[in-house]
Amino acid sequence: MVERREVGYSLESAFYASQEVYDLDMKAIFGEHWLFVSTEAEIPEPGDYVTVEIGTQSLIIVRDDDEEVRALRNVCRHRGSRLVEDACGSVGNLVCPYHQWTYRTDGSLIFAESQSPSFDKNQFGLKQVHVRTVGGLIFVCLADEPPADFDEVASVIEPYLASYRLKEAKVAHQTDLVEEGNWKLVMENNRECHHCDASHPELITSYFPFLRYSEEDVTPRMQPIYERYLAATENLDNVCKLNGVPRELVHELDTRPTGFMIMRLPLDGDGASFGIDGSQVCKKLIGDVTTPQFGDLSLHMQPNSWFHFLSDHVIVFSVLPIAPDKSMVRTTWLVHPDAVEGEDYTIEGLTSVWKATNDQDRALVEKAQRGVTDPSYVPGPYALVEDDVESFINWYIRRLHDYLTPHHEHAE
Ligand code: 3BY
Ligand code: FES
Ligand code: FE
Fold first, then answer.
1. CA proximity to 31, closest of 60, 59, 4
2. How far, CA to CA in Å, does 77 sit from each of 58, 121, 291, 402?
C-alpha cells in the first residue's frame, strides 16, 4: 500500500480504517516522532502535572522540584500499576495507589516497603521519555533516538514565538473533542482551507480562507475578499517591520522528519483576532505584543498539531489517536497571565468561534470517515490549494517507507 500510493491522490481506504495500519501508525509515526502534547502554562508550579494518552501508552508530564519539565512513563516500576488517573493535578511526590511505591517528581524512587536488603532504589526510577520545550510548547518523543532535526526546527520557530511569552501565559480554557474519524483525516482537514468558505461561517469573518491559494484559485465571489486580503497583507508587512518580528513563510512540511510550516497571516475586518469580524476577544494583549493588529502567527507541525498566535490570545491544538476510527482533538486557549475572566475576557467570547469551527471540522471528518470506508471509495485527486494535504500525506508515506525498509532497526 505504501509503495503503490499515487502522488496527488488521497490514501486508499485501509489507511483510514484497518487496525494493522493504525498499529503501524502508532509505532512508525507516534512512536518515532516529536509530538506536541501540552504547554508549560498548564504546569506552572513544581508538582503540577498533566497526563497524556498516546494509544495504549500513558505519560505524566510534570514540572519537577527543580522546575524542569519531565515526561515520565505512567507505569509503576513495582508491578506496573498506573500511577496517576487524573487528566491533571498537583502532587508533592507520585505515590502508587497499589503498594505505595513513592517517586519524586523527577522520577526517582524514594520509598518501597519490605524489599530485600540488596534492593537498590536507584535501579527503579520511573522510565522517562524525551521531552523538549519550545517557546512554552511541550513536545515529547517516545523513541529511544528521536529525530535529530528538532533543535534546528526549534531554532527557526523560537524567534517567531518569542513575542507571545507563552511560558508565562494563563490557561483560560481547554476542550477535548472526540471525533469518529482516523487521526489522518483530522490532520488532512486541518491542512487545507478549501472547505473554509462553505463550512466555517464564523471563522471566515476574521480568517481569510486563502491558505495556499494563488490568484487563479480565487473565484469571482471571493474576489472582493481577496482584495481585502492583499491590502491587509501590506498592513501586516508594515507592522512586522515596525516591531522587528520575523515575517517570512517557512514551508518545510515534508522536507524533514520534524515537518513544519510557520507563517504570519493578516486577518479580515478589525484585523485583531478571531472574534466576529476580526474583533479582539481579550482586552489584554498577550506577552510583549504592542498592537492588536498583529495578525495570526500560524504554525503547522507534523504529525499531530497546529497553533494560532493572536495579539490577544493563543490557541493550540493536539491530535491524539484513540482507535482506527476515533481521535481526540485537545484545544487549549491561553491569555496574558494578568487577564481577568469577566473583565478582560469571557470564556464564551474567547472560545465560541473556534468551538464552532472545531465542531464543523468534526462533522466533516466524520463524513469523510464514513465515505472512505464505503466499499465504493477510491482515492481522489487533491486540488491545487490542497497541496499541504499532499505534503502531509507525502511526509506520512515517506515515514512509513523508511520505517518499513529492512535496514531500519527499531524496537518492538
Ligand atoms: O487551523 C488551521 O490552520 C486550518 C488552516 C486553514 C483552515 N484551518 C482553519
Ligand atoms: Fe506500584 Fe505495587 S504496583 S507499588
Ligand atoms: Fe476547518
1. 59
2. 14, 10, 51, 33
| Mutation test residue for ligand 2: of 99, 119, 124, the one with most atoms within 8 Å of CB | 99
- Stated pTM of the model: 0.97
Q: Which atom of ligand 2 is nearest to the CA of 79?
A: 3
The secondary element (H helix, E strand) that includes residue 390 is helix 387-404
Dihedral angle computed from the Cα positions of residues 212, 11, 302 and 156, in that order, rounded to the nearest 10 degrees? -40
The type of residue at 29 is: I
Percent residues over pLDDT 90 in the chain: 98
**What atom in ligand 1 is closest to the CA of residue 298?**
3
Please say whether the beta carbons of 249 and 296 come within 8 A.
no
Beta bridge pairs of residue 141:
130
**Cα–Cα distance between 66 and 48 in angstroms, integer?**
12
Name 130's bridge partners.
141
- Considering every ligand atom shown, identify the ligand nearest to the alpha carbon of residue 195 and give its number: 3
The interface pTM score, or ipTM, of the predicted complex is: 0.93
Residue among 267, 274, 270 at smallest CA distance from 295: 267
Radius of gyration (C-alpha) of the chain in whole angstroms: 22
